[in-house]
């Protein structure tokens, strides 16, 4: 007999959080570039974001070819984009420069896989990169972050919106 799964998120009822997810009407569009190995991962947090955020798109891939069929180039030319990823020349999200960003791209995968997405996609390296100056401690206990100050994708997006949209209740 098949296991009963939540019809919204696809998770087992013991791990489903749909009942506690409230819809957030975020101003900035958030685009998650998700590594293929994260799709369907039982410990992934993108499902939570999909239940909560009104302006969220998830594109799955690793290479430019995998993202091109999903409209990444069009999304990047529509408005001013910023990449949430700590690069050598990244600026703090808390800086004034983040106020110029209309949509945020966030990489979802292990740190190694996220870095590979960035490396393989030169159009992402053209974007202004941002990091958190003083991120909160992660409260996501299911997967352990390799270093202090590293957050799950859902935590990073929630904190990003807290900083860039203070009037939005995240």
UniProtKB/TrEMBL annotation:
The DTW domain, residue ranges: 2-170
InterPro entries: DTW, DTWD2/TAPT
Record Pfam families: DTW (PF03942)
Any single biological process term in GO: tRNA processing
Keywords per UniProt: S-adenosyl-L-methionine, Transferase, tRNA processing
EC number: 2.5.1.25
GO molecular function, one term: tRNA-uridine aminocarboxypropyltransferase activity
Family to which the UniProt record says this protein belongs: Belongs to the TDD superfamily. DTWD2 family.
UniProt name for this protein: tRNA-uridine aminocarboxypropyltransferase
Organism in which the protein naturally occurs: Marinobacter nauticus
Lineage, top ranks: Bacteria, Pseudomonadati, Pseudomonadota, Gammaproteobacteria, Pseudomonadales
